[in-house]
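Researcher: Next sequence.
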Amino acid sequence: MSLKVTDRLDEPLDSALVAWLRSDEVAPVIADWNVNLEVSVSRTTRLRDRFGPDRTAALLTVMAARRKAIAKWGPGNWLATDRGIQQATDGGIAAYKAKRIPAGIPIVDWCCGVGGEAMALMRRGPLTAIDRDRVIAAMAEHNLAEADRTRRGDDPHIPNHSWTVICDDVANHPPSTESWLNVDPDRRGDERSTASSARLAADAATFQPSLKTWMSVAGTTIGASIKLAPATMLPDACRNLGETEWISRGGTCRQQVLWLGESIRPGTTKATVIESDGASQSFVGDPFEEATISDQCDAYVYDFDPALRAAGLSGAFARANGISALGGPAGYFTGSVNLRNTLAQAFEVVWSGQADLKKIRQAASSLQGRVSEVKTRGLPWHPPTILKRLDKKKGRQLVLLASRIDSHSGAILAVRCA
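Model: Next structure:
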């Protein structure tokens, strides 16, 4: 349970700062901060007087990132940078992915970052986590130790697997043939705009280690899981070797994963949603299957989960459940039953017509309802503005769903189904 720093890297990384943040000198400040999270001028002044401006700035930065870390991982004295926690996998998705890995085998986590997935992987088998950034690797070591301490206290039956964090180039630590390889290809070097970063995240040619490197290494192991941005376009040769899975949580498609190994069915496409309690629901289908198109609204309409859409499985899911695309596959779907499936939020239709605000307002009034939520697909509507224009204080809550239906703009008033 230690951090190993090799002598192969010579970048001037400030790992001493992380050591100070983990010290007994800072512990009481952090403990108080976890209870009283607001940042005030007087508190900042006291910290500067005590620690100096540089250390205070570092402490403020890390504590701001800790708020986001707690939201992702739950309570804990986590260490992270803002960029590190943005790139980290949240606890629910990490736990789901770890459970797909055979229990008890050695796991090598390349480009582990601040430890988002490593904290779940350490529960499955002996873990070696590697990152070439000294500060990030030191934070990962801290977070794994924190997870080990807090979660073992919650459940004494958690397996006691060994783990270590190494700061080095991952190429110097190839996994054995009896290991599982987990990879989050590194794109940390890009400091350009958010749009440029998003484009790089989706470009397999920018990955470090390269796609060729981790595909060749993955082929020598028991199996591998490669984390990718949802929009990443992998060569067909890669996809056909394993399973491609898109995973969503909290209404957002968070990541794409390429799964490789003997237990993985080649060429599989999957969409998975992780619920707030950690439960999951998946659908496997053919991304080339198309839905039937209807221009008539049935008793229910459905808004498909982002993972289903990102995976290109809207058509296959619609066919499997006997429902149709309303106007086209980019919009909403419609059918005669409440699907009760977390991959498709169902709404019971109470009115449908043209996307005309006057008519929508009249329809809501006749139904003794009020529009409390606006959802749009394919229309240049700004939901907050539309909601404000339809504002009404009383009445049962209705959802307005608007999209292109055939050649016109359609609107639906509906009740969200449980």
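Model: The longest helix spans residues 53-73. Residues 352 and 412 are 4 Å apart (CA to CA).
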